Amino acid sequence: MSFRGYKEKIEDGDVVILYLSNNLHAIEVCTEIKNKKGEMVENVYQTTFGALKVKNLIGIEYGSRVELSKGWGHVIQPTPELWSLTLPHRTQIIYTPDISMILLQLDLVPGSIVVEAGTGSGSLTHALIRRVKPNGHVYTFDFHDHRAKLAQEEFESHGIADYVTVQHRDVLEKGFSEQVTGRADAVFLDLPKPWDGVPHAVDAIKAQGGRFCSFSPCIEQVQRTCEALTQHGFQDISTMEVLQTELKVSRRTVPVRDLTFLKHKSCDNPVEEKPSSDKSYVVGAWPATTPGHTGYLTVATLPPAFLKRKLPVTEAENGKSVSTEIEMKSDSDSEEDKLVVDESVL
């Protein structure tokens, strides 16, 4: 399959990206499709530049130019970045600028185990799979059953189902499944109340510690998430916003005055009102508009179990004390927190 790895030629069942004059279209390569009446008909993809017979794509090389009835385009290899621009939107999605920062902050490498809560349209999931394969795995959860099933079908059709496990589950209510308890190198939350998912993230992360990241559109969500992270022993907590700005390279003409007369002290000639010449420069200009707000990324580190600071944890919403592995160890002779070594995990 084309998402599983790069290859030279297009095969039946691949997903290709059709590039048409700065427009991208995702096409599943198959010779026949069902029409509205349920009948099998020839697969013909309609574009603004005319019709494309999809069967003609089989066997040609990626990057090739293809002829349409009213023009031409190029078929290129699908990537998570291109897929995020062409996928069917089941929910609002995370785009490449935020995705790239998430992958960096989670410290993911091939072989990592990562847990994602909030599968949505699968935009981030495709990028996570590419980062951790071939030996890693992604466990992704969604509370909406239909979305979870569509995501599973999508991963299977893209040939990457071996690297991901999709589960229908309300993570905030039930937590992550026992399948991921104590196995995750990193946890990502894209949920309305990520602070309620922090205790479950602690359970999922390995005893050796790991990274945490949450995506929230509102600063009030960030504040409550940071409080929960602090209470549960996370360190190096920080929040950031990614705004991508691209410089546009263009040529500009600048009026230039001839000021050579200033070199002569006795010169009485006044400066001319109009420029005497024009000069052209290649410049990098800022865009006329700035990108809008998408969301805040809150990242933190959960230290190894034997180095966790022993801090009291309380549940603010119901006022009840929560029993966790984080305890208070105080010393009457010192006001500083002490580090307690749990010899059972050494």
Automatic annotation (TrEMBL):
- What Enzyme Commission number does this protein have? 2.1.1.220
Compartments it resides in: Nucleus
Main enzyme class: transferase
Q: In Gene Ontology terms, what is one molecular function of this protein? A: tRNA (adenine(58)-N1)-methyltransferase activity
Listed Gene3D superfamilies: 3.10.330.20, Vaccinia Virus protein VP39
Q: What is its main location?
A: nucleus
Where is each tRNA (adenine(58)-N(1))-methyltransferase catalytic subunit TRM61 C-terminal domain found?
Answer: 71-301
* Catalytically driven reaction(s): an adenosine in mRNA + S-adenosyl-L-methionine = an N(1)-methyladenosine in mRNA + S-adenosyl-L-homocysteine + H(+)
Region of interest called Disordered, as start-end residue ranges on this chain: 317-346
Q: CDD domains annotated for this entry?
A: AdoMet_MTases
One protein family per Pfam: GCD14
Give the UniProt keywords, A-Z.
Methyltransferase, Nucleus, S-adenosyl-L-methionine, Transferase, tRNA processing
- Basic and acidic residues bias: start-end ranges: 326-346
- State whether keyword Translocase applies: no
UniProt record, GO biological process: tRNA methylation
Could you identify this protein by its name?
Answer: tRNA (adenine(58)-N(1))-methyltransferase
Originating species: Pieris brassicae (White butterfly)
